[in-house]
Amino acid sequence: MNFYIAILLLEEKPSNSILQNILGVIVTVGIVSICVYYVLRYLESVYVKYKKKPYFIHFYPSIKELPSNLQVFIEENDFYNKLDKKRKRYFAHRAAVFLDDIRFVGREGLVINDFMRMQITMMVIQLTFGMRHYLLEYLNTIIIYPASFYSILNKTENIGEFNPRSKAMALSWKDFQKGNLHEDDGRNLGIHEITHAIHYNSIKNNNISSEIFYDTFLELEEYLGSIEIRKQIVDAKILREYAFTDKFEFIAVLIEVFMESPDDLKQKFPEIYAYVVQMLNFRYFED
């Protein structure tokens, strides 16, 4: 009986040994992969420190196509039409992925159509086009009201708000459209609220896009610590008074001006303009 058990043990040993070898290989590959990732991540952080931009922005194993009924909308977008053929495909791909990732909800009887979804989507894609990580972790729902709405969160009548706890953004469609129609006035509801979402994501995440945005924001804060610079900004009246509510509103209003009147901002405050370019890695006004 003991002899029979010994034979069984000998027969089981090779199979156990093979299993252990397989597990050993898997663990080793996993550890090596993690080490390689963090080494590359560190090297990219060093690269960003000196070059002020990531290794790369666009890399997609496969390109997602927009349905033809949605493609017509981006072909009317001014920013999209300034891109080369390759970047146009990237823009359309990002729009298609974003639409799959985000839930649009209408309130107070508002029926959301393709035009509405695409107008908001294109604005998000444009603002994040210089970033590798363009899907915002703390945004998965966009709520659209016909006009201003009562905010349960703030207990006020609002035209837009970003709520990171519910990962939702609420917009007044009337005011969103007004911002798009009256360009160059430094007021754009969509840009403003999307910037809040980007800013919050940059604080909570540690990917390279968030790192660049947040670290540059801190550099800008330090630069704006000068009383003389702050006085120049106030005197120039390039930013509306709401910008001085707090640092979150300041950056949101600043990026409104940057996206709508880049030449004006660059001429009056070239240093601040350069900070925003770096923050968003948005160099398309330089082309």
UniProtKB/TrEMBL annotation:
GO molecular function terms attached to this record: aminopeptidase activity; metallopeptidase activity
Entries under Gene3D superfamilies matching the protein: Collagenase (Catalytic Domain) (3.40.390.10), Glucose-regulated metallo-peptidase M90, N-terminal domain (1.10.472.150)
GO CC annotation: cytosol
Family annotation (CDD domains): Peptidase_M90-like
InterPro entries: MetalloPept_cat_dom_sf, MtfA_fam, MtfA_N
Record keywords: Membrane, Transmembrane, Transmembrane helix
Record bears the keyword Transmembrane: yes
Transmembrane region(s): 18-40
Pfam families: Peptidase_M90 (PF06167)
Keyword set includes Transmembrane: yes
Name assigned to this protein: Zinc-dependent peptidase
